[in-house]
Amino acid sequence: MHILVLNAGSSSIKFQLIDTDGDAIAGTSDRRLARGQIERIGGEAIVSLEAAGREPTKSAVQLRDSAAAVDYIIKWLIGGEGGAAPIHNMREIEAVGHRVVHGGERFTQSARIDDAAWRELQELVELAPLHNPDNLRGISAARAVLGAGVPQVAVFDTAFHHSLPEAAYLYAIPYQYYRRYRVRRYGFHGTSHRYVAYRYRQLTGVTREATRIITLHLGNGASACAIDGGTSVDTSMGFTPLEGLVMGTRSGDLDPAILDFISAKEGLTSREVESMLNKQSGLLGLSGLTANMRELLEEEAENGDRRARLAIDVFCYRVKKYLGAYLAAMNGADAVVFAGGIGDINPLWTDQDHARNSPYGAPVAPPSFIIGCFSGIQFGWPGLGSFHSQSRLIFERPVYWDDVVNATCVYEGFDGPSPSDFAGRTVTDKFLNTYTNQRGEQIATISWQVMNFERGRALARRPGQGTGGTNGGGAKPGPVLPHPWTEDEVTEIEARVLAERPRGAEPRYWEDVRAGDALDLVTKGPIGMTDEIAFVAGGGTPIPRLKAHAAALHDYRTHPAWAFRDPVTSAREPIYSVHYNLQAARAMSVPFQYDVGFQRQCWQIHQLTHWAGDHAWIKEARAEYRKFVYHSDVVELRGTVTGTRIVGDGDHVADIRTEAVNQRGEVVMPGQAVVALPSRGSALSPAARRARSPQTRDQQSGRQQSGRQQSGRQQTGRQQTGRQP
Length: 725
What we know:
Nucleotidyltransferase, domain 5, globular, 10-stranded antiparallel sheet, alpha+beta, Thiol Ester Dehydrase, Chain A
């Protein structure tokens, strides 16, 4: 069943064409065939269109009104106007869904638009004069083009909040205004909050009745919703979308007396004051710069703009206030769930809709996911400490959700003993990991090395620790640990992190890349204990896996060298705890806890995928791990294109030099990468060339089973991807 979805505004229309049915909806396997947006209707409109499996297009077209825009969309869908023909004629559009902002108290759920419903919708215009008229024009346009026989359905922003109790939706004003004019809290963004709650239940397996969450829709429009028992029990927007959180151009909550005060001082009418609160306030009004959060973060990070920082702080403070209020109202919550455009990182790994419309045709895992499936085997040489020193990763195929990843590890021997400046003599172990999927296809390989050193010699050479002084033996002063960041410095670092965005669906063409081009910066830090625990929880530890209590003690009794006695807690801790346990780090002659080698490699891959976009393919990434990235350190990942070429398999590639630099100016990870980029002269992008066929994906989806993860052995690892890679 093909459904056309329309969201009509005053001078714009957004649309999607969805292929779905009841089973597809239940299994979240409906497909988006096309999507787009037409802006500046009424003159030379800007038309942005994208069909599944095709490159997006943008053009300028003369469109006089909404009816002409809808007519253009439908002609494009069936192959006219240079379209991609996801359908063959208008009769294949079996229904149209319309977003309608306000349903009042009459429409408590989606409704088919018949003559009676149409009349009632017209009566509701006074409740949403800025939005509902535009929505109704979209309905009229679709009727005019498709005919009265195609069902038109209205989906209301307000409907999800119909479950609010009286105590939440009534204002403390004379009750007769509610009886006469239905002045009350209606709430908006209901379709978003309802969908986010639905996805939360899908991902967690929680029943609707047990759902107790707070959802945050954060974008140019922003709202919060308290959801208990699967229903909305409170929400931040009120009689209009003006109430609640700070938004791009809307003020959110304020004292109503301010309206008359400003009106009197500035000589403004009530309409002008209302317009100011809706269109000139919020982030724009506070900063005087922009309504865009990303631009504010960039401005604050690059130029230290005080008002940009102020706008961000007021926005965040208002969100925190609502979170606290809803936690109190519901006696707690099980999760805070985000929607909208703020906080989004790379939707290719996490957003099913985005991934289905990517060259892969379905959700995939990031390339670094294989490290979480199996990173290696941990063993040692008597009397020697060891560090992971370098790796080379070669990626051949994507990992789809529900794939099974099988891993093998081969010990390829060692080099040495060799002299070193760090700690006397060293021995270097060499390993090769090979990863395959359930089809027997090779996914990737990792060649990695571990440097083993004389622990006693390293201890004698260890620099001063903790204060930046020496150890009393004339050793070179070491870094001050933890690093003494100021509040302003941390604020600036976090602003840089929050401003990072993946390139996403916009192709980065090989023809546009030149030697000397810089990659977008990616910042990590200040590194903390939770960063290391998250890496461990994600499967980053080598075999033997970390265990606890009796399971751990049995292992340590059999293998005493796997653990040591923490002198502070008296607990036995694994040697691997050097990454989060201070005493373990010091036992390895290191002054402070430090990061994991493969963790650093994941940062490099993060930077490469952010820069390259959805259509590219990371062919190879290699890196050396130098020095230590201590807890409290901040690392900046940089990169430069060194050249472009066409390789034997036909890929158009960019050669890239990468480096990770800490706040002390030390290069802690030099590296290289080879990235295949889409070419304007090639029919398929590198990602599309490696994507699995739709038939094969469907067969795999049909074989999904519960019990998706199996434990590994010391020589092999096996893991199936979950719904949240």
